[in-house]
Amino acid sequence: MEIGAPHGSIRSLKDFGVHLGTVILGILIALGLEQWLESHHRSKMAAEAEAGFRGEMQFAIEQVKSVTDKIPGTRSDIQAQIAKLSAPAAQGAPDEPIKYPLLAYQLVPSASWDTAIATQVLGTLPYNTVRKYEVVYAELKVFVDAERDGAGYWYDLHKYGVSLAALTTDQRRALIEQLRRYDAFENFLEGLGQDTLKNCEAALK
After folding, report:
1. Contact of 95 with 162, CB cutoff 8 Å
2. Distance (Å, rounded) from C-alpha 178 to C-alpha 153?
3. Cβ atoms of 137 and 109 closer than 8 Å
4. What are the residue ranges spanned by the domains of the chain?
5. SS3 call for 109
6. pLDDT for 165-176, tens place per residue?
7. CA of 200: how far to CAs of 72, 159, 166, 183, 195, in Å?
């Protein structure tokens, strides 16, 4: 800010005081306006960030539900396949394909949260608000990481091929163990998903 010389000459201490007061008032007004604009900008960014969090929470709920809703059917299919593998192989029976369980896998976005961290917008939000979303995003990451582990278990199942009749007794036993492992994982994922859904829904209240 430039401070220009007063118009006319300062003829008294009073004139100097008036001029000095005018300059100081102008500086205070300018600083106050700048701070107001900065505060308004940060408040707008905070509101946009929280709107982004809520949008991602809504989408995450849909994604997690789409996975957990399929788990009971998947576990039922696993038990049916274990029962077939456990039955003695009948001589001359027609070959059947191995029915592997379906894989349900959904990604959960976190772009709004990652952007808020990168731009330091989180500092404009109340601590309790930040903590609430931080916990939920952390749990969503755990859920997605668990899905990724489950995808590995699912691919491991397929090394036994597609023909039920072609399996040896040892292979049948090994596949049963793998299916039980996958069933236990699905049970764990369902519980984790239910907890994740509760936290997501609570964050939106």
Report:
1. no
2. 8
3. no
4. 52-203
5. coil
6. 889 999 999 999
7. 22, 37, 46, 25, 9
